[in-house]
DNA sequence: GCTCCAATCTGAACAGTGTTGAGATGTGAG
DNA sequence: CTCACATCTCAACACTGTTCAGATTGGAGC
């Protein structure tokens, strides 16, 4: 596995690859920078010309995977089975893609989902969160999600899906039947959307058209975390 | 800080305390066993008479906190503001307690919520998950949650609440107004419950009383993870 | 009271870690 | 062909988790 040329060519990418498979083999912390370097056939200190620290390596990997996940979600929305025009079907496809990924690649998912550096901003495109909000907009435009319930709705849906994904990736819950994951994911999305719709219709029944409760919620200023992109990474 | 007696008396507890404050100061991995030992005024190897490894220390701490959280949730259900007879109010109080804790003590929450050893089983009493299911049962008994929707409902609610808590603890979302957290939590719980109720009523409208979809969901075998309790830890 | 065992803790050591800095080795622009 | 610069190596640093032989102690049984 020793390379012949002194210069590696793409050491950065190779280190990210090695780190990714190491995460898969032994989790986020079950490996060392030295080991990743050794796998690539390079001295430990070589890595420091591409990443400021081990943490930065992990963060860069996290961002790489996150961007890939964004692509995957978007793709699976576009190619939702059945009618991809139905915005609700699209959202279910998104949820399924998200959760399935977390379950199929749990070690990497654990790394990425607890966001050491996965705050929505960075140069990550498309960020999974953006894909979700776009789908909710589409849902609203199609009339499937009432206007009054739209504000902050991405947060409710995100929490539910994220919770599901994290619970599965962490192994806190487990399904015997792999198909059950799909069903539960679908149920979570449907339940959440139904709940959101009903909340809005309740509000519409009130005198002012929107209840005081909904009104206050609308004023909630949901600020997504700003994080520095790794200086040498990404 | 050096103790006078050779035997510490309660080194185990003292190490757990030190670990807890270290987690709070520098996160799950930002400290060493040696440092925790030093804080307690004891040699590093002393810790190994109480915990098989550093990991076991962390796991034991996780379980201690988890049990404490269970107590907290149960307490906050019992003493729900307003009418503690209203099962929906109780569940909202539970959600509030859960999420608020994650936000107020994020470092410890991060440690505990990703469950290295927090699978519902162990000797943890009361386990937060059990408190949740008990509340859902109460909700069903009161008629606020239709029978057909009860099965697996704890999973939907848990996912939503857990997702919210994890997103906040990980700093993936942030609210400017601290009160907004309360509102969003309430919204998440309400939305989920409404969604579950509506799902059931939809099903009731069908010929067989339960749709094929609900029928399949009912057969989902939700298995909670079984994990070994740490051999030397509690 | 004393004895003696088992629990508890210490000290020194091991291999392995992240990280640094000085120097070797190539590469591509001029 | 040269030479500056990016890339990589080597050796070293302080520190980590962990082990184990031996010192220290509290308490049970006499």
UniProtKB/TrEMBL annotation, chains A, B:
<dbReference type="InterPro" id="IPR001647">
    <property type="entry name" value="HTH_TetR"/>
</dbReference>
<keyword id="KW-0805">Transcription regulation</keyword>
<feature type="domain" description="HTH tetR-type">
    <location>
        <begin position="9"/>
        <end position="69"/>
    </location>
</feature>
<feature type="DNA-binding region" description="H-T-H motif">
    <location>
        <begin position="32"/>
        <end position="51"/>
    </location>
</feature>
<keyword id="KW-0804">Transcription</keyword>
<keyword id="KW-0238">DNA-binding</keyword>
<dbReference type="Pfam" id="PF13305">
    <property type="entry name" value="TetR_C_33"/>
</dbReference>
<dbReference type="InterPro" id="IPR009057">
    <property type="entry name" value="Homeodomain-like_sf"/>
</dbReference>
<dbReference type="Pfam" id="PF00440">
    <property type="entry name" value="TetR_N"/>
</dbReference>
<dbReference type="GO" id="GO:0003700">
    <property type="term" value="F:DNA-binding transcription factor activity"/>
</dbReference>
<dbReference type="InterPro" id="IPR025996">
    <property type="entry name" value="MT1864/Rv1816-like_C"/>
</dbReference>
<dbReference type="GO" id="GO:0000976">
    <property type="term" value="F:transcription cis-regulatory region binding"/>
</dbReference>
<protein>
    <submittedName>
        <fullName>TetR family transcriptional regulator</fullName>
    </submittedName>
</protein>
<dbReference type="InterPro" id="IPR036271">
    <property type="entry name" value="Tet_transcr_reg_TetR-rel_C_sf"/>
</dbReference>
<dbReference type="InterPro" id="IPR050109">
    <property type="entry name" value="HTH-type_TetR-like_transc_reg"/>
</dbReference>
